[in-house]
Amino acid sequence: MDLKRQASAPLYEAIEKFRKKRIVPFDVPGHKRGRGNPELADLLGERCVGIDVNSMKPLDNLCHPVSVIKEAEELTAEAFGAEHAFFMVGGTTQAVQNMVLSVCKAGDEIIVPRNVHKSVINALILCGAIPVYLNTEINAKLGIVLGVTVQQVEKTIQEHPNAVAVLVNNPTYYGICSDIKGICDIAHSYGLKVLADEAHGTHLYFGDNLPMNSMKAGADLAAISMHKSGGSLTQSSILLTNNGMNADYVQTIINITQTTSASYLLMTSLDISRRNLALRGRQSFAKVSEWAQYARDEINMVGGYYAYGKELINGGTVYDYDVTKLCVYTRDIGLDGIEVYDILRDEYDIQIEFGDIGNIMAYISIGDRIQDIERLVGALAEISRLYSKEEKRFEVDRQMLLPRVLASPQEAFYADKIKVPIREAAGHISGEFVMAYPPGIPILAPGEEITDEIIDYIQYSVEKGCSMQGMEDSTLQTLNVLRIWFSELHSPHVKFDIRVEKQLFSGESDYQRIDVFQSPEFGKFLTLNGSVIFSEQDCFIYNEMVVHVPMSVHPDVKNVLIIGGGDGGVSKELLQYDNIENIDIVEQDNMFVDVCRKYFPETAVGLEDERVHIYNSDALRFLRSKQDMYDLIINDATDPFGASEGLFTREFYGNCYKALKEDGILVYQHGSPFYDEDEDACRSMHRKVFHTFPISRVYQAHIPTSPSGYWLFGFASKKYHPLKDFKPAEWKRRNIHTEYYTTNLHTGAFMLPKYVEELLEQEEER
Question: Residue 504 domain-assigned?
Fold first, then answer.
């Protein structure tokens, strides 16, 4: 850095020269150097309002700088070790948004820690990119989110090969620093850009023995809050670029959000502050570091507080610590951070940066005095003596809860929404922000799943007096949630949609993804890998048709095997028959069983009878050891793909044949032949079974949630024909309760449409 060049302030010098010319203004602003608004001039001073001017040739234009603003930005880039610097008059919020918009477009994934400022999420709303949250660790005592490790970043990149960028907080509000150089190196090795939110890191460029700044680490872009530790006017910030970023393109992006009436007060403050930091920053921040450490030592000597610092460093989640941050844990004196924050302001006339559930943060910078620090320490000592009470803890012992992203921020923000009472919001997808400000980190962001834990945390924050922002209902009695639709592709050109009230469950087992939704039309319904398996409103059709058709044909079923059936629906129907002595259920996915028991207890009651035995096993393996054992086998597997693929093979049907007694019956799902992509599976199943069993027939049912509302079942037997051996009178005497199946329907179900008959006949001839 050339200190001789840094001693100049071209924009400041130009504005001073302009002021002395006493040019008659016939342009905006309308206060005309304060004459039109004397109260404003009294408040700010004539010198200040006198340089509140509009863009003109001698003073350059921020949207297309060619002279003094350009020179000031070049000097700023040099001072910060960047290739380019851009003045921001919309605060670091604007800088962060422009940073994200410069590298992301709709549908792109960007890897971010969850404790990002709301401006990051706002940028994603604007551009349509999707956040991939890093699974950051939390200090259990302090309740603060720690940094991210290089290993976490690399693992996330590998899991999301389509990600385009990684965003890093350097440092966090609490002074936590990640290994930003290591992150830059690993991200660049995979071709990703690195963005640094350095809102709280201006001083890192001008201090010794401080954490590494992002430009030195090799980041591609960095957003810098000069008005925080840098000493410029509030709302003035800079955006830095590096590594050959296209500065012209970044300028174009900036001009989308940048005002065309940039404040020369803000820009001049950036120019002057940059000069001050370049010439005197190292001495200034050495003093800031010294005073912050002094304050930590004194506060810790008071007792009851914990002012933390470099002792948190562990080389991983806390790679380094910014010692200029004075963060104090307060809950050991029985007070939440927000309570201490309020007492300091209301009783001691001390305004600190923020208080959260467990901590307070006091900002120490180049404008502080040692006597001010002494006053803060003294006030904290007094508060401990006068207000301390028994230590308490909030049930949620972490500052940042990590919700699941169920919709992109943009999709959620613009989606159709409804208001629900906050206590009924769990399971819904948030359509708005909820955050405590400061620090402005969302507790909940658009597109994230709302949980009971998040609701507890929000309500506790409200009770403690945190300033909550972002939501439409300022009382926080209600939340805006998405009026969502579940969509299943029945074919590449046909989509089946169900209006969803809330999502009750989502989980990934070793075999499949399981989701449970609540809907107004179908009640609760369960999906596997995005396909509807059953709903409360139409599952009776399926269950009755796979059970009562064979049970009205076979005269004496005692021993039954259900393959799949972990929901309990089929066994519940079977349990109506007194002659059945044993039901074996082979369900390899324990999670599926647990989910059904929890969310569909009226169906899962079919799992609880003493005649029912559940085996957690692969069905093919289970069947291999069975011979001449079952009167009835019902294949309740969902489709011939994924985890169930082996249950639709020639060897599977052969094993079923072997496991059945000499008069046994196999009933299986035959699918829907209506769409072309499903026809091949139907043909294949019928061909395999037809050549395995002496009797093979197909019957139908109309199930609303099935593709085209039409479903086929296969009936295969060693002895019994489903129509010739059908015994309607005997079945009626059993007095079995049904809602769909009748003996008339039984006969009609085997009368198939002509196109179905033809495709079955074609496979029988092969």
Answer: no
Tokens coding 759? 């495709």
Q: How far apart are the first and last CA of the chain?
A: 83
**Which residues span the domain enclosing 675?**
533-764
pLDDT single digits (tens) 388-428: 987 655 544 444 456 788 888 998 899 888 899 998 888 88
| Separation of alpha carbons 55 and 65, rounded Å | 10
The answer to whether residues 583 and 671 belong to one domain is: yes
227 within 8 A of 96, measured Cβ to Cβ = no
Q: What residue type is assigned to position 515 of the chain? A: D
Query: Which of 550, 316, 353 has its CA nearest to residue 439?
Result: 353
Quickly count: other Cβ atoms within 10 Å of residue 723's Cβ. 15
Cα(600)–Cα(593) distance, integer angstroms: 10
**Annotation marks residue 636 as catalytic:** yes
DSSP H or E run through 48: helix 46-50
Domain count, the chain: 4
Task: Tell me how far apart the alpha carbons of residues 242 and 99 are, in angstroms, rounded to a whole number.
Answer: 12
Angle at 593 between CA 587 and CA 599, to 5 degrees: 155
Residues 266 and 300 in one domain: no
Give residues with Cβ within 8 angstroms of 93, minimum separation 6: 117, 118, 119, 122
Run of H or E including 176: strand 176-177
Closest CA to 736 of 568, 563, 580, 537: 580
Cβ density class 673-695: b for 16+ within 10 Å, e for less = bbbeebbebbbbbbbbbbebbeb
HEC-encoded secondary structure of 434-448: EEECCCCEEEECCCE
Which secondary-structure segment (H or E) carries 513?
strand 513-519
In a domain, 38, yes or no: no
Catalytic residue chosen out of the listed positions 636, 676, 678, 725: 636
- The residues, ordered by sequence, that sit 6+ positions from 596 with a Cβ below 8 Å of its Cβ are 526, 566, 567, 568, 603, 604, 607
Radius of gyration of the chain (CA): 34
Q: Indicate which CATH number applies to the domain containing 332.
A: 3.90.1150.10
Task: Note the pTM of the prediction, 2 decimals.
Answer: 0.72
User: Do residues 75 and 201 share a domain?
Assistant: yes
Structure tokens given for 291: 């005073």
Q: Same structural domain for residues 363 and 378?
A: yes
Q: Measure Cα distances from 743 to 383, 548, 550, 557, 578 in Å.
A: 81, 9, 12, 18, 20
Residue 280, H or E segment: helix 264-302
Same-domain check for residues 468 and 611: no
Length of the chain: 766
Give CB contacts under 8 A, 24+ apart, made by 410-415: 410/106, 410/124, 410/125, 410/126, 410/127, 410/128, 410/129, 411/128, 411/447, 412/446, 412/447, 412/448, 412/482, 413/125, 413/446, 413/447, 415/482, 415/483, 415/484
* 437 — pLDDT class (breaks 50, 70, 90): low
* 164: three-class secondary structure by DSSP: strand
Residue 585 sits at φ, ψ, to 5 deg, of -115, 125
Q: Same domain, yes or no, for 541 and 571?
A: yes
**Domain shared by 268 and 305, yes or no:** no
Q: Provide the residue type at 278 as one letter.
A: A
- For residues 461 and 357, the answer to whether their CB atoms sit within 8 Å is yes
Q: How far apart are CA 11 and CA 268, in angstroms?
A: 6
Specify if 519 maps to a domain. Answer: no
Give a yes or no: residue 614 inside a domain: yes
pLDDT tens digit string along 320-379? 999 999 999 999 999 999 999 999 999 999 999 989 888 999 999 998 999 999 999 999
619 with 704, same domain?
yes
